[in-house]
Amino acid sequence: MRAEWRTCAWACGLSLGLALQGCGGGGTASEVNSTSVHALATATAFEGKSVATRPAWGNPAPVCVLPWGPDLNAVLGTRLEIITGEGGCDAQIAAHRRWGQLLVFFFNDPGGSAAVPLRYPPGYVPRGADPVQDFLRRLTAVSYELQPSGQTITYTAHHLRHHLYRSTIGAVFGGSGQFPEEWDGLRTITVLPPLPPLRPGDYTTSVSVNFDGGWCDGTSDDPLACLPAGAFSVYSRDFIAVASAPPK
């Protein structure tokens, strides 16, 4: 499978890495590079949160059900109103509740998996034998820009450490047809920090990631399967915040 901005970070559709981004279409060449949009770089490696660990904060029974079946809050162990790319959850959330904009990254196994050999582009030197550790050591920040206010909220790697949720491609994308079935066991990390509650109204949210030296997920030797160094715009989404929880 060619990484076509697999980074999609569920930006686009939800294709994990680009699969989702690709799913939604469009974007500039720099926005469609590809690699599993996965992304978070930090000088200090930290472990992603277990899906079994639920945060103390959250909303009463928020729902984000993907067209192919899974409820993201149930899969990730979160309780948030969730904005995804096109083809994901409804672009409507409840006002006055915490919410998040989805970014999903996937990774090969250390030494490669049965389905996918471990491969990197020429010249790329991973910062750890495990592609997940390489990711954690390179991701420096994730930023969210909200319109029409123009407010930008940035989470550094240090602050993101409590908002990384581990899962697998099969748990999130199984049945969607976006990945070969043999990829179901590949690991994922969802970056989903809570964002401040909003008043009712129309909004646009844009998310970007920042990697120290760029990042490759270990599934391809194609440079287009990597995210570039520095700030990278993943995707934007128009959505509505309504006065009460919207019907799902």
Short description:
The chain is α+β, with helices and mostly antiparallel strands and 248 residues long.
Stretches where pLDDT is under 50 for at least 5 consecutive residues are 1-58
How would you describe the shape?
Answer: globular
The sequence of SSEs as H and E is HHEEEEHEEHEHEEEEE
What is the domain tally? 1
Give me the secondary-structure category: alpha+beta
The Rg value, from CA coordinates, equals: 16 Å
* Beta-strand percent range: 25-35%
Number of strands: 12
Q: Roughly how many Å apart are the termini? A: 33 Å
For the biggest sheet, the summary is: 5 strands, mixed
* Strand line-up across the major sheet: 2-12-9-5-6
Mean pLDDT: 78
Residues in helices, as a percent range: 10-25%
- Give the oligomeric state of the chains in this entry, treating copies of one chain as homo and distinct chains as hetero: single chain
Tally the helices.
5
Structural overview:
It is a single chain. The protein is built from five helices and twelve strands. The longest helix has 8 residues. The N terminus is likely disordered.
Task: List its traits.
about 250 residues, alpha+beta, 3-stranded antiparallel β-sheet, about 25% strand, globular, disordered N terminus
List the helices and strands and how they pair.
Layout: H1 19-24, H2 72-76, E1 81-83, E2 92-94, E3 99-101, E4 103-107, H3 131-138, E5 139-147, E6 151-156, H4 157-160, E7 164-168, H5 169-173, E8 187-191, E9 201-211, E10 215-216, E11 226-227, E12 230-242
Parallel strand pairs: 1-3, 2-12
Antiparallel strand pairs: 4-8, 5-6, 5-9, 7-8, 9-12, 10-11
